[in-house]
Amino acid sequence: MPSVDVHAHLGVPAVDELIADEPGLAGQRAADAAALGPESASYNVEQIRSLAVKLTDVDVRIAAMDRAGVDVQAVSPVPLPHAWAERGLAERITALTNEAVAECCSRRPDRLVGIGAVALQHPDLAVEQLRTAVRELGLRGVQISTSAAPGVELDDPSLAEFWAAADELGAAVLIHPWGCTLGERLNAYYLFNTVGNPVETALALSRLAFSGLLERHPGLRIWSAHGGGYLGSYLVRADHAWQVRGDARTTEAPPSELLRRTFVDSLVYTPQQLRHLVDAMGAGQVTLGSDYPFDMGVEDPVHRLLEADLDATTTEAIRGGNAARLLGPLPPVG
Where is the Amidohydrolase-related domain (predicted)? Predict the structure, then answer.
């Protein structure tokens, strides 16, 4: 079984060039800067510049994988949101993104598998893009944010056809946050990311569980970054609400049972936290994740898995077996 890193990102300069002068991008950047605060916003600009080669050079990527003991990497776009893009522009952004992911993976099909993008703010278009990504480009699924657009959550009825298509195709849907709708309350100390990202993921997963989506589509392959955010540490509170309140008793199964049908990554940093995550989510639902090449990620996901000192069956499942269930057949080792 290969070691599979499900959480790694690719930069797409062609998209950056396409949207450079778009008013929507300027608005997104202004909102992000306000939420980040001036110090973190400045820091992030410099970081992105410094990571340009790692985000785009396949040889540099493969060398980093070799150092980390990672055999296969699932490559997904940098999760910058483009929910502001009107339909025509959204079509071009997604096409360029998915073609770039496919081209990157085609250079090392023995080591890389692709995760694309969809314009979820245009639900009917997102369905078409998902089908094209999987059936024509050979991608294993798509990455989405924690909402489809401002005011449109992932359980919104307008997205029903998208979720049905993902189920039908057996496509992985990777949920990756970008900041947090708490906005300027997080504008210091990089709370935009350290608090904001886990909060957004916990909220998105909670809505999917309580809405009944995971019961309507039990075959969905949903994965979330950063260990699923804060939810894994406090699933019992969701279950308690489900048990005692009529407005929260919206599903046949309790939320914890439904959420254990989804996958998360191992990016929780310490052996103790990884053991807790496995206990909360189940040994069959955790995959390796590095968040390559960002500073909130780790360079040694395999080593950190081994440090958790889990039993051999669980270790092998997290190393790669669970990723094969999420993404489909993987390139053979060697």
Answer: 4-328
Model pLDDT for residues 6-16, shown as the tens digit of each residue? 999 999 999 99
pLDDT digits (tens, 9 = 90+) for 311-329: 999 999 999 999 999 999 9
Q: Which of 7, 71, 141 is nearest to 320 (CA)?
A: 71
334, pLDDT greater than 70: no
Q: pLDDT tens digits for 122-161?
A: 999 999 999 999 999 999 999 999 999 999 999 999 999 9
77 preceded by a cis bond (ω within 30 of 0): no
Element at 9 (helix H, strand E): strand 4-10
CATH superfamily of the domain spanning 4-327: Metal-dependent hydrolases (3.20.20.140)
How many whole angstroms separate alpha carbon 198 and alpha carbon 104? 29
Task: Retrieve residue 160's tokens.
Answer: 């029903």
Q: Given CA atoms 306, 308, 309, 315 in this order, what sign does their dihedral have?
A: negative
Extract the tokens encoding 47: 């970081």
Length of the chain equals 334
Residue 273 vs residues 287, 292, 304: alpha-carbon distances, Å: 14, 20, 11
Are 96 and 12 a contacting pair, CB within 8 Å?
A: yes
Structure tokens at 124: 């009917």
Delimit the domains of the chain by residue range. Answer: 4-327
Angle, helices 87-107 vs 123-131, to 10°: value is 20
Give the strand pairing for 152-153 and 172-175: unpaired
DSSP-based three-state secondary structure for 216: helix
pLDDT at 91 over 70: yes
Task: Quote the strand ranges of 202-255, DSSP E.
Answer: 221-224
How big is the chain by its Cα radius of gyration, in Å?
Answer: 19
Q: How far, in Å, CA of 292 to CA of 313, rounded? A: 26
Instruction: Supply the pTM of this predicted model.
Output: 0.96
DSSP β-ladder status, 147-149 and 152-153: antiparallel
Alpha carbons 169 and 142: distance in angstroms, whole number: 12
**CB–CB of 77/104 below 8 Å?**
no
